[in-house]
Amino acid sequence: MAPGLLSVGMGPTVHDVRGAPVPGLSGVAPRPVPGAVRGSAPRPRAGASRATAGDAAGAASSPARARRAPPHAASPPAGSRPALVAAIRHAAGTAGVDSALSLAVARAESNLDPQARSTDGLSVGTFQVTHATAAEMRRKIAAGTVSRPAGPEDVALGVGYLRYLDDIFGRQSTLAPGLATVPVRDGSERRLFAVAAYNAGEGRVARAQARAAAAGGDPTRFTDVRRFLPGTTQGYVDRVVAYARAETAATAVG
Which pTM value belongs to this model? Predict the structure, then answer.
């Protein structure tokens, strides 16, 4: 099984074939990024320390000894940032998408803010999914051509769309007459194409593949294709990759 995103059979789409930007291109007013996205912060151990008496014979003269209650595992409060991170990880797991990549996209899109809205008002939520893309994904989920990831709608649509994009670049997908994706077999490479399509639209990335091939490049290698994409998309992919690496490193340490 290829690393990173996995592929499943999903129907092709003609959404954004004309190259209209999808989530992330219009952007949201950036917020200060405090650092790498980390998982749920550990909660303080439940209960305060309490003293216990010594044995019955020495109770009067022996000092009390402190002991702590055993750690208490609890879910993060609903609506908190740790809860959102946990929801994204869970959704990614049910969809077969790399959780670090999913968190990286959410961070690049909204800095993990479910209330975020793009300046043009077309993209909303944690993953900044456009209204048109959300409607299309709901139709595909209702038709059974796309499996809905677990979790709240805001998270499920973003993770599901990322999975869908990985799928169409994992096989030859006809997007419109004369326009099709070139299959990218390597999972690590394919995730870059999926991220680029998340920002610029699958049609624009498919055309970049065709231009790379016409120029003598390899349309399945992102390094050969990226120069035919907008500069904003190139920067977006680099940022997501950096966030994903930071998340992976933080998870390994934690």
Answer: 0.71
